[in-house]
Amino acid sequence: MQTIAIISQKGGSGKTTITLNLAIAAAKRGKQVAVIDLDPQQSASRWSRLRSAENPVIVGGHGPNLATLLERAKDGGADIAFIDTAPKSENAALTAARLSDLVIIPCQPSNLDLDAIADTINIANLAKRPTLFVLNNCRASSALPDQAAEALAEYKAPVADVRLGNRVAFVKSLADGKGVVESEPHGAAAREVERLHATVQHHVKKAS
Question: Are 158 and 206 in contact (CB under 8 A)?
Fold first, then answer.
């Protein structure tokens, strides 16, 4: 079973949005997917109540029982598990990173986000797991995403070549209990998620 942790010590980075959209993209390809929601706000768990589809399966949990939850997901037939972590939760994020095959670090292209990224990088480095930066909430007409990519490159971890745009589709789809590949399968947001899913799979296989 693949295990992918999405971590960021800064709130509002887009962890849950990325987690759920990647999970749905994997499910659309016939994979059995589990999402383990470690965030006390339980945003992913609340989102799951809006859905009728059973895949992905959303499970709430805490850092100390994460290994057990992953074992249960594997025993239940999951092909991929995504771990959605909370901001300002160093211990839980470190546990998630250590138990993962790949750590995804979302980052918005802003000075505040870039200034706060060091704490998350420290966790990924402590875990000694492969890491992938994903730029999120990017405006097409702005130079900030390119500048952010250059700044992130200094941390010696790859930056995904696909960036998620600042799009209403992401907000609207989650409010409807869906991902963008379900609500607007031919839209720009869906294409971005499909490309990101492929990129994530490439890095997971490369790390294995």
Answer: no
Token pair for 199: 């990129």
């029982």: which residue's tokens? 65
How many helices and strands in the chain, by DSSP H and E?
9, 6
Residue boundaries of the structural domains of the chain: 2-207
- Contact partners, residue 118, CB within 8 Å, separation at least 6: none
Q: What is the CATH number of domain 2-207?
A: 3.40.50.300
- Tokens for 99, please give them: 């138990």
Q: What string of pLDDT tens digits covers the 208 residues of the chain?
A: 999 999 998 888 899 999 999 999 999 999 999 999 998 888 999 999 999 889 999 999 988 899 999 999 999 999 999 999 988 888 999 999 999 999 999 999 988 888 889 999 999 999 999 999 999 999 988 899 999 999 999 998 999 999 999 999 999 999 999 999 999 999 999 999 999 999 999 999 887 7
Q: Tokens 């079973």 appear where?
A: 1
Contacts for 92 with CB less than 8 Å, ≥ 6 apart: 38, 62, 63, 66, 85, 86
